[in-house]
Amino acid sequence: MFLIARNWWAVAVRGVCGILFGLGAVLWPGIAIAVLVLLFGIYALVDGVFAIISAVRAGAKNERWGSLAVEGIVGIIAGIWAVVAPNITAVALVAVIAAWAVITGVLEIIAAVRLRKMIRGEWVLGLFGVISIAFGLALGFSPIAGALILALWIGAYAFAVGVLQLVLAFKLRHWRNRIDSSEEEQERLAA
Description:
By secondary structure, this protein is mainly alpha-helical. The protein has seven helices and no strands.
């Protein structure tokens, strides 16, 4: 787990991408569904790649990496599908986003439960999971929603998740700094 704290910046990048994507979708809700599909595809790809990077780094340090890898693969598949098939229908887009959000939410809750003994503030990751699941279920129950409403929902979701990821990143950075300070103190005392 210490590895993810050392790479807190990757979580921060994911958060910034979510915030930027969310603001774009909320500020320009009238964008065409094809552009929304493309933006979602890029966001899901970037998010998936950073999750895979985190999983590979965790695996190299013999830390748990499975849920991060699955989250990354799901994000990459959703992103590729959205980019390769830009003429996807609104209903299919809703289904892809809903499934992605629910799966990601479940994986984030699993990660939060595993982190609860290692760091304080793991509730942020768990809250992200709950928001993701709620968002996915809301989309699933209203698949005929218009592109305007869909853009606003996706924007609000991405913005909220981005903010929570930034909060988590800075908590991880703080935890890393505490551990680094503790190690430096131990080295100083040992010398």
